[in-house]
Automatic annotation (TrEMBL):
GGDEF domain boundaries: 163-295
Compositionally biased region (Pro residues): 578-591
Source organism (scientific name): Demequina zhanjiangensis
Annotated spans, Disordered: 550-628
Domain EAL stretches: 304-555
PAS domain mapped to chain residues: 4-74
Protein name per UniProt: EAL domain-containing protein
Length: 657
């Protein structure tokens, strides 16, 4: 044996990487210890066996192809990445180099020299990086990066086909409530289960991705019609809406879904954006719905974006103004309070009503600075008219309460204006009050401790039990306009109005019936026992400078056509006219069985002082004792017991114990 052969033999045996010599048939003639160790076998267990015995089935084809090229002389060597199966069944990733070893004169057979470098750990690290780069860590679904890659390929592959690609954008309804109430761990469990249900509902080849939070996207391949996509959507919604048990709570999740179908001009980003836009439309329609994308949705979204940008400027440049709509004492029609309502003096579109921008303010969280502006303006209005001793009520959003620290805003406005806290009231919707977080409830309690009255706005339009509302520090209720429109129907409208009017009196709250526009509605409201009312019959929302205050504390607002013109933002054409005298008594007699109207204090909302012990001593005073602290009062907080005592059948009302 020559010196060269000895050196090769020594290097072969002692090499730290695996080495092997294959005969022309692909059997191992020689292997070193490193190669045998890589496979988890001894030398004798490898010698004489074919390389195919240890090669991963998925890599056999490329291995045969490489060996064939070398045998044919097409290439002297080959490099490839392949997988071996170890004795324990594990997959071993290896980077191998195969070289031709021509035979000698004495032994003309060709052999193959193989060098095997174990790169399993390197491959695992790469796979982990790929997993983190392309897959969601919580659910294991594709993430946004992988989704867009796959969606782009799908769109390209369908451009010249009859079928197309559909994109679904799913958002879990009210998911924040789960996180806030049960914690993020419970929320994660819910998301994992919903992800599994969606994955099990789609067809093989479809892609399910999670974009983050509670948002999922599904890419449907080979869709021939919208009906096919809707069939998959039905399967998804049915699966998702099965109950989930979280801790001791059984929840039934729902999703809002947007559907967008690809066309010849679609891009991956554009299709996802279109589905997202449609999903937002489904949310606005009431959640747990499906909406298909239409180009007008995009235009509407761009319009909202424009309004949001302009609204930021409006808040900064003081383009917002506050109008005041009167609340009257129904027996006398005397103005005893105002509701502050924001208006936007747009530089090009004129006076904008709240429904044209409040929704955008809520979605963009601009409602917080906008709401603070209204509170400061309302307090300044009160301070400018000390002769008027009524209240001003201001609408607040649930987004202003809790994290936004509404108490701090109110304290600041009170300090700047120097007014008494009892002159300010805050209106919160029924649903908003009941869905308030712990922090929000603490904020509400702090406000009542200041002496601020809380009023439930649009009462009756929510979906909660009446008893739940009464557990909150509420001083008054405003019956929604929807019920006022039904006054005089001698059916549900009248029954609800009568019950709510009497209930507020029983609970020592003040009640305001909204939306009174006709004398007929006014008459019925009085018969039902309402003492306060609001509506166009008594005045439209009016600019502060158009309200006339008398030294005796009375207030007058424009009426008739002038009132409507001012509310709409039209320039005034005349001075405020003298209000038409109104009858101070209702010509319709009160039925004997109905509660008589209790006298009211002209100073504002609330019953007049009494001399009997334990009775109210001023506007909301039963709820605000020394220092404005919340106090219990002697009245029946069970509406069922009260209604039975007063001869009212509770079965006609949506009340729950």
């Amino acid at each position: 044996m020559s010196r060269t052969e000895n050196l090769f033999r020594q290097a072969f045996q002692e090499s730290p990487i695996g080495m092997a010599i294959l005969d022309d048939a692909g059997r191992y003639e020689e292997v070193n210890a490193a190669f045998a160790s890589t496979l988890g076998l001894s030398l004798k267990d490898v010698l004489g066996r074919s390389f195919t015995d240890f090669t991963h089935p998925d890599d056999l084809a490329q291995s045969h192809e490489a060996l064939a090229r070398i045998r044919s002389g097409a290439a002297p060597s080959a490099k490839l990445l392949k997988r071996y199966r170890s004795a324990s069944g594990d997959t071993i990733w290896a980077r191998i180099t195969v070289s031709d070893a021509p035979g000698s004169h004495a032994d003309p057979r060709h052999r193959l020299v193989v060098q095997v470098e174990d790169v399993t750990e390197e491959r695992r690290a790469k796979d982990l990086l790929t997993q983190r780069t392309h897959y969601d860590h919580l659910t294991g679904l594709a993430n946004r990066t992988l989704l867009l890659d796959r969606l782009a390929l799908s769109i390209d592959s369908h451009r010249d086909r009859i079928s197309t690609v559909a994109c679904l954008f799913l958002d879990v309804d009210h998911f924040k409530v789960v996180n806030d109430s049960l914690g993020h761990e419970a929320g994660d469990i819910m998301l994992v289960e919903i992800a599994r249900r969606i994955q099990d509902s789609v067809r093989p080849g479809d892609t399910v991705a999670r974009l983050g939070g509670d948002e999922f996207v599904v890419v449907l391949e080979n869709i021939r019609s919208r009906a096919v996509a809707e069939g998959v959507i039905t399967a998804i919604t049915e699966a998702v809406q099965s109950p989930i048990l979280l801790e001791t709570h059984e929840l039934v999740p729902t999703v809002s879904i947007g559907l967008a179908m690809a066309d010849e001009d679609s891009s991956a980003e554009g299709l996802v954006r279109a589905a997202d836009t449609a999903m937002s439309a489904a949310k606005e329609e009431g959640r747990a719905r499906v909406a298909a994308y239409h180009p007008r949705m995009r235009r509407d979204a761009m319009s909202k974006l424009s309004v949001e940008a302009e609204l930021r400027t409006a808040i900064r440049d003081d383009q917002l103004d506050v109008y005041y709509q009167p609340i009257v004492d129904l027996p006398t029609r005397r103005i005893i309070a105002f509701e502050a309502l924001v208006r936007w003096h747009h530089p090009s579109r004129g006076l904008l009503q709240p429904d044209e921008f409040i929704g955008v303010a809520e979605d963009s969280n601009l409602i917080v600075p906008l709401g603070a502006h209204v509170i400061h303006q309302a307090c300044a209005f009160i301070a400018e008219h000390p002769e008027f001793n009524g209240r001003v009520l201001v609408n607040v959003s649930t987004k202003q309460i809790g994290a936004a620290d509404l108490t701090r805003v109110v304290r600041s406005a009170l300090s700047e204006s120097g007014i008494d806290p009892s002159r300010l009231g805050l209106e919160i919707t029924e649903t908003g009050m009941l869905m308030a977080s712990h922090a929000a409830k603490s904020d509400l309690e702090a406000l009542t401790a200041l002496g601020i009255d809380l009023v439930v706005d649009d009462f009756g339009t929510g979906y909660s039990a009446l008893s739940s509302i009464l557990l909150n520090p509420v001083s008054g209720l405003k019956l929604a306009r929807e019920f006022t429109l039904r006054l005089g129907d001698r059916s549900t409208g009248d029954r609800i109005s009568l019950a709510m009017a009497t209930l507020t009196l029983s609970l020592d709250m003040y009640g305001v019936i909204e939306g009174i526009e006709t004398e007929a509605q006014y008459s019925v409201a009085r018969r039902h026992g309402w003492t306060y009312g609001q509506g166009y019959l008594f005045g439209h929302p009016t600019p502060a400078h158009e309200i006339i205050f008398s030294p005796d504390g009375s207030a007058q607002v424009p009426s008739g056509e002038r009132s409507a013109a001012l509310a709409a933002g039209h320039p005034p054409t005349m001075r405020p006219e003298t209000p038409t005298p109104r009858p101070l008594t209702d010509p319709t007699p009160t039925p004997p069985r109905e509660r008589a109207v209790e006298p009211r204090n002209d100073a504002g909302l609330g019953p007049v002082p009494r001399t009997d012990a334990g009775a109210a001593s001023g506007p909301g005073s039963a709820r605000h004792g020394a220092g404005g602290a919340f106090m219990s009062i002697e009245h029946d907080r069970d509406p069922f017991a009260w209604m039975h005592r007063n001869g009212i059948d509770p079965s006609g009302f949506d009340l729950h114990r």
